[in-house]
Amino acid sequence: MRDPTLQFIISLLVAPLFAILGVSLAGASTSLAGWLVTLCLWIFFAVRSARHLWKSMARAPLTSVEMRLLAGITVFAVLVTVAAVVVAALLIAEVM
């Protein structure tokens, strides 16, 4: 379980529980906060996995599967970061 890529894949499955918990509490701001926690967890594990793959590329060339995985995780991290910023802005706007 020390492989960051495996941890990233598991976080894709487990992190939405925070969003589900936020929705079940029936508050709009709670729902947004749950999504923000979910997105932040995805960002953390995606960046960690991508960093691990970039470092392993320096030691030995990556296979085509690993290169596609690296590209996919990097794009995912960028998109989730943008989504997290939007959710944070919505949460701030709702609180004010």
Structure notes:
The chain is mainly α. Helices cover 88% and strands 0% of the residues. The chain contains 4 helices and no strands. It has helices at 4-14, 16-24, 28-59, 64-95. α3 packs antiparallel against α4 (64-95). The longest helix is centred in the middle third of the chain and has 32 residues, at 28-59. The chain starts with a helix and ends with a helix. The model has no long low-confidence stretch (mean pLDDT 86).
Features:
about 100 residues; mainly alpha; 4 helices; about 90% helix
* Structural Rg: 16 Å
Gross morphology is elongated
Q: Encode the helix/strand succession as letters.
A: HHHH
How many DSSP H or I helices?
4
**Fraction in helix:** over 70%
Segments where pLDDT lies below 50 for 5+ residues? none
Beta-strand portion reads under 5%
Class by SSE composition: mainly alpha
Q: Could you tell me how far the N terminus lies from the C terminus, measured between alpha carbons in angstroms?
A: 42 Å
For the secondary structure, the number of strands is 0
Q: Which sheet architecture does the biggest sheet show?
A: none
Average of the residue pLDDT scores = 86
What would a concise description of this structure say?
This protein has 96 residues and is mainly α. 88% of the residues lie in helices and 0% in strands.
Describe the SSE topology.
Elements: H1 4-14, H2 16-24, H3 28-59, H4 64-95
